[in-house]
Amino acid sequence: MTPCVFCNILAGRAEASFVYRDASVAAFMSLEQPNPYKVLVVPTAHVETLYDLTDAQTAELFQVVVKVARAIRLVSGCEGLNLVQSNSTAGQQDVPHLHVHLLPRWSGDGVVLSWPHVEEPRAALERLAAELKSAF
Ligand SMILES: [Zn+2]
Q1: Is 99 labeled as catalytic in the residue annotation?
Q2: 52 pLDDT higher than 80
Q3: Which residue of 10, 25, 70, 117 has the smallest Cβ count within 10 Å?
Q4: 42: helix, strand or coil
């Protein structure tokens, strides 16, 4: 077995409950279900982070993300849905194989995604935007 749990799942060496699978993307039930119907969507190739995706992989991955999100909404009747995609240790990436969490949400479900709500001055936002624009 490779050390990558998602590669082991994709190779059939570890269990998962698949929702969707094609040549380049797979979706399976998350082991953790903070709300029912939480799904993980992954590229079938071992791609570690978002930065490593090709444009084609990006398109294929996010087309499946939207497809699965619609299925979750239809089946669960969820009132909302969060996408969570984490990169690297500081970003709290728990498995080093790119994955997108699709978490259906209901009002008052107790799930908390939180950061401080402090608005930056426009000048600071313009400076940050200019730095990013220069990086393309
Ligand atoms: Zn992997």
Answers
A1: yes
A2: yes
A3: 117
A4: strand
